[in-house]
């Protein structure tokens, strides 16, 4: 299953047997973490993910400082729109805890 150009997800044997698929949001987050760039889900997607809105937005928005696609792409049967923002808009307000 294609996530991004040159980045694919291979289903496990269990997923083939049970005819199940990994959640699209989880699939995107695994792919973006693998690429190693700054990113986060857009506002509408975050509201949908947390169950805060009663409206349904069929497009998943991903904000990034590197990846931009002019049209939504299809990942796991859902439309995903990549929006590019300036590098200065990433990283502020994030506190990393040391364990």
List the main descriptive attributes of the protein structure presented here:
99 residues, 4-stranded mixed sheet, two-stranded antiparallel ribbon
Describe what this molecule looks like in 3D:
With 99 residues, the chain is α+β, with helices and mostly antiparallel strands. It has one domain (2-87). 25% of the residues lie in helices and 24% in strands. It is built from 3 helices and 6 strands, in the order E-E-H-H-E-H-E-E-E.
Short précis:
By secondary structure, this protein is of the alpha+beta class. It has three helices and six strands. It has one domain (2-87).
Strand and helix map with partners:
Layout: E1 2-4, E2 7-8, H1 13-18, H2 24-35, E3 39-41, H3 43-49, E4 59-64, E5 73-75, E6 78-84
Radius of gyration: 15 Å
Number of helices: 3
Mean pLDDT: 84
Assess the beta-strand content as a share of residues. 15-25%
Report, as a whole number of angstroms, the end-to-end distance. 35 Å
User: How many β-strand stretches?
Assistant: 6
User: Which spans have pLDDT < 50 for at least 5 consecutive residues?
Assistant: none
**Percent in helix:** 25-40%
Spatially, the strands of the biggest sheet line up as 3-4-6-5
- Using the alpha-carbon principal axes, give the shape: globular
Structurally, how many domains make up the residues?
Answer: 1
Order of helices and strands: EEHHEHEEE
Q: Report on the biggest sheet.
A: 4 strands, mixed
The helix/strand class is: alpha+beta
């Amino acid at each position: 299953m294609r996530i991004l150009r040159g980045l694919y997800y291979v289903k496990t044997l269990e997923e083939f047997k049970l005819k199940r698929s990994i959640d699209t949001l989880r699939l995107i987050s695994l792919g973006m973490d693998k690429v190693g760039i700054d990113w986060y889900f857009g506002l509408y997607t975050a509201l949908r993910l947390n169950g805060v809105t009663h409206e349904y937005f069929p497009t998943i928005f991903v904000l990034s400082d590197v990846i931009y696609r002019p049209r939504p792409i299809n990942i796991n049967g859902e439309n995903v729109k990549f929006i590019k923002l300036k590098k200065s808009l990433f990283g502020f307000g994030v506190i990393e805890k040391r364990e």
